[in-house]
Structure formats: structure tokens, C-alpha cells
Design brief:
Layout (H helix, E strand, L loop, with lengths): L1 E5 L4 H12 L3 E6 L13 E4 L5 H7 L5 E4 L6 H6 L1 H21 L4 E7 L22 H20 L2 E7 L1 E3 L17 H9 L6 E4 L11 E2 L1 E3 H16 L5 E5 L5 E2 H12 L5 E4 L8 E2 L4 H7 L7 H14 L1 H7 L12
Parallel strand pairs: 1-2, 1-4, 2-3, 4-5, 5-6, 6-11, 7-10, 8-13, 9-14
Antiparallel strand pairs: 9-12
Helix pairs in contact: 1-7, 4-5, 6-8, 6-10, 8-10
Bound molecules: uridine-5'-diphosphate-4-deoxy-4-fluoro-alpha-D-galactose.
């Protein structure tokens, strides 16, 4: 079975490609390499193309049995400042992909959605039935594309799975794939960079939330657990399963301070930190109820926070040189090392 991974050279897509190939699927990578990395997908068939390019898509979708759509802009803060870019990529271009998929006669589609669709949930843990009330353009585009999938499913017989990721983190155990962004905003890589003195400190955005230690709580899910959920979702679609939506998280939340403490344990280094004001739009607690995925997808995460940090740490150590190249303005580390 040939599966087109749109945005497949990115952090999550590349891990999924590896797991799919291990399970006997043939991943075909479609990426414009704006943020993806060629070396993450060297071993696979790769097509360089834009999601907005109908002709290129038409060609890429020949002999494809299913599509997984990862390609999206995914920074909450940026989405508030540049909604046009978010609506264009995450809606307009994504609909071009969806239309091309349906036109090619393909009826299996997996979508990378996000816990951002829930906004600030009133109930915890978050179920798939918890009302979707996104509070930023990023979450709004994810919710809107889910709606498009529902309509296409009803009208055109498309079968889809929308996977609502919680906080993806960690790296492949091989040390060959991991988080590599020109601008990093995610907590775990920033904490590890601070441990390595690749930055001065990690900034803690608020310690006055109504949580036990005052810092925000998130549900961190290992990227390879996310990857295996995609394999399960694909198997569900190939076994004639119905369209569905799943939360993907562990059901266990960790505060920012708990993540920092765990990172110190894993790295055996102190993580310098500073308390800053709250970051706009951060819900205090996001933790998922994974029961639906357990029951219907027969999937449950196998790795916890320590495994996430252990693999992310291995990746950070292995890629220090690349990191220096991609962020030349950052403080160099050597002279500051403890
Ligand atoms: N945080 C810090 N300092 C940092 C970075 C993050 O204190 O330098 C805190 C944030 O305030 C948050 C937690 O660490 O409480 C996690 O932040 P991330 O930026 O790593 O991740 P988010 O929880 O903001 O983002 C996640 C997903 C998004 C999704 C969003 C929904 O990555 O895709 O949740 O709120 F949209």
C-alpha cells in the first residue's frame, strides 16, 4: 500500500514514515522543504512540491492508496499575528490537497489535528466530545478542516481519521530524527538547550496559574507513540473502519517545573531558568482522555516523560553542530559550559 505523506519531511511526518515502512507500507514523501529536512527522508521516494500546486499533486497522487496530511503552519502565537498565512496554508492549500485527493479517487485520509481545537476546556480530562472552542487562528483552522472532512465524508464517501495531537515531544531512539526548527518555541527542546548552555536560560511563562506549582500543565506524548497511532489509524481505514476523531496523549499531565526537574535528572545538568509573565493564549491545563483511542484504535502510548526526555536529550547532543548552523545568532556554548 502506497501512502502519500504530505509534509512528510517534518518532525512528526518523518517519524511516521519510518514506522509505516517498518509495517510494510510504502511511504511517499510530498514536501516543499520549507521546514522539513531532506536527510530525514533520504531512504524514501520524495516529491518536492507545494500543496497549492494542483498539477504536481495530481501527478503525486497517482497509484496512491491513502493520504496523510501533516503540512501546516503550527505556531499559536504566529497565527495570531499572521492569520492570513495560517488560513491560506492550513485551509486554502489544505483544501486543494483534499480536492485533489477526492478527484484522484482516493477515499482514505488522515489529518494531523491538534488539542488547540479545544481552546481553554471547561472539563478535564479532555474527551473528543468536549466542545471545540478554539481561541486562536491556528486552532480555528484545525477545527475548520475537521469540519470540511466531515462534509466530504458525508457527500463523497471519503473516510478520514483526524488525530488531535497533544504535546508531541521526544525523538526516534536511533538518534537520526528529532525536533529541528530554525526558530524553537517548544518547551522540551528549549529546556534541553538551556541545560547544554546553548541558551542562557529557559523562560517559564507564568507561575501564577491555578495549578499545584503555579506553572502550566501539559500532556507530553512521545513522537514514536504518535507515529504508531498513525499506523493504527491507517489500519482502521484499510479495514473499512468508519471516519473518526481521536485524542492522542498519555492522559498524564506535567507542569513546566516538573519537566525542568525531569530534564535535570536525565541530563545530570542544571537547567538555568527565569520566571516571566504568562504567554498570551496558554490554557493552564491540557490533559487528554485517551479512552476512545484505546478502545477503537487499539492504541495506547508506551513511553512516558523520562523516555521523551532521554530520546530528546540524545538527539540534542547528536545535533549540536547543526543547531549552531541553523541559529547563528544564538550564544555559543563552549565557554559557558559548567
Ligand atoms: N513554555 C514555557 N517556556 C517556554 C516554552 C513553553 O514556560 O520557553 C510553557 C508554555 O507556556 C506551556 C508549556 O510550556 O505551558 C508547553 O509549551 P509548548 O510551546 O511546548 O507547547 P504548547 O502547549 O503551547 O503547544 C501545544 C501544541 C500546539 C497546540 C497547543 C494548544 O504544541 O500544537 O498546545 O494550546 F496548538
Amino acid at each position: 500500500m502506497r501512502v502519500l505523506l504530505v509534509g512528510g519531511a517534518g518532525y512528526i511526518g518523518s517519524h511516521v514514515a519510518l514506522r509505516l515502512s517498518e509495517r510494510g507500507f510504502v511511504p511517499v514523501i510530498y514536501d516543499n522543504f520549507s521546514t522539513g529536512h531532506r536527510r530525514f527522508v533520504d531512504q524514501f521516494e520524495v516529491i518536492q512540491g507545494e500543496m497549492a500546486d494542483c498539477e504536481c499533486l495530481r501527478h503525486a497522487l497517482k497509484n496512491i492508496d491513502a493520504v496523510i496530511h501533516f503540512a501546516a503552519k503550527a505556531y499559536v502565537g504566529e497565527s495570531i499575528l499572521k492569520p492570513r498565512e495560517y488560513y491560506t496554508t492550513n485551509m486554502t492549500d489544505a483544501l486543494t490537497l483534499l480536492n485533489a485527493t477526492v478527484d484522484a479517487g482516493i477515499r482514505k485520509f488522515i489529518f494531523s489535528s491538534s488539542c488547540a481545537v479545544y481552546g481553554v476546556p471547561e472539563q478535564l480530562p479532555i474527551r473528543e466530545t468536549t466542545p471545540r472552542i478554539p481561541i486562536n487562528p491556528y486552532g480555528q483552522t484545525k477545527a475548520a478542516f475537521e469540519d470540511a472532512l466531515r462534509s466530504y465524508s458525508a457527500a463523497y464517501g471519503l473516510r478520514f481519521v483526524a488525530l488531535r495531537y497533544f504535546n508531541a515531544a521526544g525523538a526516534d531512539e536511533s538518534g537520526t530524527l528529532g525536533e529541528m526548527r530554525s526558530t524553537e518555541t517548544h518547551l522540551i527542546p528549549l529546556v534541553l538547550k538551556a541545560a547544554l548552555r546553548r541558551s542562557q536560560q529557559v523562560n517559564i511563562f507564568g507561575n501564577d496559574y491555578t495549578t499545584p506549582d503555579g506553572t502550566c500543565i501539559r500532556d507530553y506524548i512521545h513522537v514514536n507513540d504518535l507515529a504508531s497511532a498513525h499506523v493504527s489509524a491507517l489500519e482502521l481505514l484499510f479495514n473499512e473502519g468508519e471516519s473518526d476523531v481521536f485524542n492522542l496523549g498519555t492522559g498524564v499531565g506535567f507542569s513546566v517545573l516538573e519537566v525542568i526537574a525531569a530534564a535535570e535528572k536525565v541530563s545530570s545538568l542544571r537547567v538555568p531558568r527565569a520566571i516571566l509573565p504568562r504567554r498570551t493564549g496558554d490554557p493552564p491545563i491540557l490533559v487528554c482522555d485517551g479512552e476512545h483511542a484505546r478502545r477503537k484504535l487499539h492504541w495506547s502510548p508506551q513511553r512516558g516523560l523520562i523516555e521523551i526526555l532521554r530520546t530528546a536529550w540524545k538527539w540534542q547532543i547528536a545535533n549540536q553542530a547543526d543547531d549552531l548552523l541553523s541559529t547563528p545568532l544564538r550564544q555559543s556554548s563552549a565557554q559557558h559550559r559548567p
